[in-house]
Amino acid sequence: LTAQDRPRWLLSGNEAAGFGAVRGGVRFVAAYPITPATEVLEWLAPALQKVGGTLIQVEDELASINAIVGASYGGVPSLTATAGPGLSLMAEGIGLAVASEVPVVVVDVMRGGPSTGIPAKSEQSDLSFAVNGLHGDAPRLVLAPTSISDCLATTQWAVHLAEALQAPALVLSDQFMGQSRTIVDKPARLPYQANRLTAEANTPDYKRYRDTPSGVSPMAVPGRPGTTYTADGLEHTEGGIPSSQVAEHVRQMNKRERKLAIHDYGDMWADIEGDGDLAIITFGSATAPVREAIARAAAQGVKTRLVAMRLIAPARTEQMDRALQGVRRILVVEQNHGAQLYRYLRAYFDLPVKPDTYHRPGPLPLRPGEILDQLLAWRNAA
To answer: What count of other Cβ atoms lies within 10 Å of the Cβ of residue 358?
Structure first.
């Protein structure tokens, strides 16, 4: 097909996230409107009806997170969408999903903060909360789409990972991607589907939290004969009985950590482009201006490698090491005041060199020209 004959879609990042959720297998959504995430929920309401799913509007964000935990407990892949203030309110419910190993997906369309902040403008300032914001040691999945169209693929992948690993997945979109529209080629069909490991009826010696080599243990759908299903926020034994014994606590913490750490995420964890000895690490909506800045720099003879992270947590340290082989300088680019990605990388990754950082808050989006200026000045100062 010629470029004129190929099917083209006009969509926003919020619509793409909703479509990715449906494609991934989400069939229950609990909605509480909030700028700039409301369009995700508005798009899903009629879409779910077409595939036999359900959307309910609840009274607040606490209700929405607990509703999707409950629906997922019942065996239905579930999702909600919110922004920073709502994500803050959901922290305890997400922690329950971690402890009880109930898969849920939360799409966070980030906006300027803190508090009410700047509701209708973009900022990548929820990253630190997403990776560290729950009390206790609470492993969770944190993902970030790299473009408007990638909101579809990343959300679909998040559903797949949450269901496969029985863990909450937080998807960090933002206002710039969520409420912007673009024309893209018709999105390809992806293999990522909700595929939960469930217990068969009358499983001998069934234990909901059995300490398996993979860390993933079969879930029994409530009502399935010969199994006892529990979803315990208290620390527990392998059988789901509350326990404060150190051996049980350590065993279950190791289990919850291990299942995320050893999973094979493949090449989806990041977009890696170029082979220069300078590298820029970024994420989310900062990817597009960084990519354009790298292209402009290449026209001036400056070769730069791009690492746009799609899977933020758990940290893919070995994969990052391979992506940065031969790199002698690293620049971390992001749109927030506190250099949150830079600090996360310094904490969790053994980078080959100490990185530099270019970061600033919203509400104005990052622009290729300012990144190019920074890249050239940074390179010339070497």
So the answer is: 22
